[in-house]
Amino acid sequence: MIKIFADTSDINEIKELNNNPLIAGFTTNPTLMRKAGVKNYEKFCKEVLEIVKIKSISFEVFADDFIEMERQARIISSWGENVFVKIPIINTKKESSIDLIKKLTNDGIKLNITAIMASHQVLELLSAHAPMIVSVFAGRIADTGVDPRSIMVQCKTYALYKNAELLWASPREVLNIYQAETTGVDIITCTPDLIKKYE
Is 103 annotated in the active site? Predict the structure, then answer.
């Protein structure tokens, strides 16, 4: 069965969902944190880790240059064994993060590679070694009028290497959970509202 990760930065939602056996992990990002009123990034993350002690949780770097991304990634990774560091596949200048990804994974840092929009980007990750989540923005692909299922199937064939899991990101409806599962995807992120509809 596909694993469901709750996508939220609301501390009360995290407390509630952490006790839900349906939820296998959590993802966050700086945008969600701002919407939730988070003022101190590190303090918030450490408060979350007092709640989420075993389940996987992803915290994202917020830098755009690769030197600072690396510095932040190493700090974030040190906060817990269950922490995956979210690194975008490209930065806002459309520069590839693949060299940084390889460097961090070679050092054993667990990553969640995010903002992937095409199967060829997944192919670039095949030389990485550490446990990794490969997050393809299937919902955004669907927003362009393209059915993401064939892309996810292709990504799954690329992602079949040690310690990598494929994630269907930004679903829009409950149907996407079933679509993700039938295409062999390992994980799907869902908002708390979508989780309630699914239950």
Answer: no
